[in-house]
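Structure, all two chains, one model.
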Amino acid sequence: MSDTIMEHLDAAPPPHPLKEFWVYFSENKGAVIGLYFIVFAILLAVFADVIAPHNPFDQYRDAILQPPVWMDGGSSKFFLGTDDVGRDIVSRLIHGARLSLLVGVIVVTLSLAAGIILGITSGYLGGFYEILVMRLMDIILALPSLLLALAIVAILGPSLQNAILAIAIVVLPHYVRLTRASVMAEKNKDYVTASRVCGSGPFRMMFVVLLPNCMAPLIVQATLGFSTAILDAAALGFLGMGAQPPTPEWGAMLANALQFIQRAWWVVTFPGLAILLTVLAFNLAGDGLRDALDPKMKR
Amino acid sequence: MIENTIITARDLKKYYTVKEGMFFKTSATLKALDGASFTIQPGKTFSVVGESGCGKSTLARLITMIERPTSGDFEVDGINAVTSGPKAMKALREKVQIVFQDPYGSLNPRKKVGAILEEPLKINTRLNKAQRREKSLAIMEKVGLSPDQYSRYPHMFSGGQRQRIAVARALMLNPALVVADEPVSALDVSVQAQALNLLMDLQEEMNLAYLFISHDLSVVRLISDDVMVMYLGRPVEQGEKTIIFDHPLHPYTMALLAATPHVDKSFRKDRIILSGEIPSPLNPPPGCTFHHRCAHMTDICTTDAPELRWVGQRSVACHHAEKFY
């Protein structure tokens, strides 16, 4: 009886969600540039062995602190010059991309997984458990993040693995708070009640019903967290608490060459630029992602 | 009373504790529902009427077993739903389903219609994927949705169609009772009629009982068999629809009925204008909770709370009910 009217009201099927997402994402030029740079960095990292002109550990003793190719005394053999023990900076940067991205991936995965579990359980279950988890997160938040990471690494012993673990712990509260906030906003909605009326257990409620509806802010936080992780890893490396020499990690490269900054600016500048550009790219892409995923920005 | 009943509720009460004050927290008791008793027979519609904050939705949450009553109990199909163990409760939950007011909030935006409809089956039955699909397509046809809408997302539907999906979900487990919490008040008037027709057709076809919650008296007049009028958490008048609509005995019911718009002039009654606001349930007035808005108030109304009693074929909670009979 009603179908004739209803059929007309039925809008044309909207485009595929991914396609729609790309339309909104590509409106933000900065985000697209950021995304391209990230893809570029990932390609560099994946094919580092093929692309890098030299082995990052090889020391060319006859070409110590050689300047980049466009300066007097530079040679095309070492495009961005060499460091204090004659290692090719381009090759070290390319291999460093591999480490930095790996740090980002592992830190984000660890903290996202733990953050979702802690946040969703505390938001859904509430009570004493929630107070316990949230106050613990408050304590972590109350300490300066780098200082806490340093302390954790100092206890566990300096290595890249421990640095990753430390950073994951330091950024954990952000994910926990974000998840809990979304869960608390969602859990009083009718569809959640409806699911409970038809008999969903707590596990199903948390991870099948609630979690997919809380993902949008978490995805954005994860992209932005990527850059924080890279930055923190570089900082720990700079302080000698992260990757240990001769690992070609960007922060460690900065730290090791600091004494030559007056004499050979390139040993410090290029790793610094690499960190800057990668972090900037992730921030830009994360920004665009937030706009694209926010339903309020859609027309 | 001897015939089988789906729901027998006895003196259901739900109190909430509310914390007040910024520094010196004192707890106050909010009597959201203060003693409701009723029965619902299969295939019948029991309507609950009242203005916002009178405990209608609290009643719905108790009957659907989302919350437990503070005191009182109720039986679903002869089994006590308050004192039973978890296993029996699981079986009872299948028999009582709910349709919410807001069709935009009641469907999970991340799931396709098919997945929304099959969720109850997935949890409560051992049907395989093909059987679940078959069953949900059959119910979709029943509520007037076409099979190609099976794999669409809720945001692709209009309000009326969403409400059809919500009704379909409620019917997936073959419930005996559907609690409809203002199911049409969020819809356009033109779509309201379609939704009501659908509900009535389904009732006839599946012998469903409805606990129909509404503030719209014209809808209630159309759809119900029995009516309960509530004020501030208490039922004030309760009985058969025709008796209550034709000859209300409680001043509040009279005021509600007089406020219903009519097209035909001869049906229009003199407006009874209620002065003042509905009092806070945290601090209800002494005696009859309605007395300070009532035109027929006497001294006894300010001191003694009237109990529900049988006057003229319905129960009514008013000291002066005989006067209006």
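Residues 65 and 83 of chain A are 5 Å apart (CA to CA).
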